[in-house]
Amino acid sequence: MKAHDSIVGLVVAILGGAIALYSQSLVPPRHLNYGPGFFPLLIGIGLVLVGGGLIVQGYVTGRDKPLFYRPRWLENRQFVFRFWIIPIAILFYWLAVTPLGFLATATILLAMIQIANGVRWKVAFAVALITALVVNILFASILHVPLSWGLLTPISGLFIW
Which residues lie below 8 Å from residue 68, measured CB to CB, with a gap of 6+? Predict the structure, then answer.
């Protein structure tokens, strides 16, 4: 089912507001002006703005459209698989990040999503590994946000500068 843009916009705006409100409860470390709530606050504000834009767009362009309808892409199995790989990846991340660590989990997820979308496995793995390393270095060394090391705990010092 596909929902009308106004309905999706309302849900996105409510979710963004909830994220922004929750981010205020995350206490920053005493030596930084910003803390763990900074990026969730930015994301929440962005979601509220995007949700508001969807509500306006739905009102302006979709007055005559039904609130719910079945899109044509649901008839193609490959498109359905590509849709479901994202929720499955989120569930896998939630289950695997603590035991495997961020680097391994992010590399596996990014590679599998790319392979599912037609990228050759060697290219997908290389891009996934480089991306996971860059994100890990950014969060651990620059932003001082700890990510799970999992299996790589014994050598985690090599990735922080």
Answer: 1, 2, 3, 4
Neighbouring-strand partners of residue 3: 68
Instruction: Look up residue 2 and give its two tokens.
Output: 């596909």
In the structure encoding, which two tokens stand for residue 56, read together?
């306006």
Model pLDDT for residues 61-108, shown as the tens digit of each residue = 877 778 777 878 778 888 888 889 999 999 999 999 999 999 999 999
Report the C-alpha gap between 47 and 139 in whole angstroms: 22
Q: Report the mean per-residue pLDDT for the chain.
A: 88
Terminal-to-terminal C-alpha distance of the chain:
48
Measured between alpha carbons, how far is 97 from 19 in angstroms, rounded to an integer? Answer: 21
CA dihedral sign of residues 130, 134, 135, 139 = positive
Q: What is the pLDDT of residue 90?
A: 94
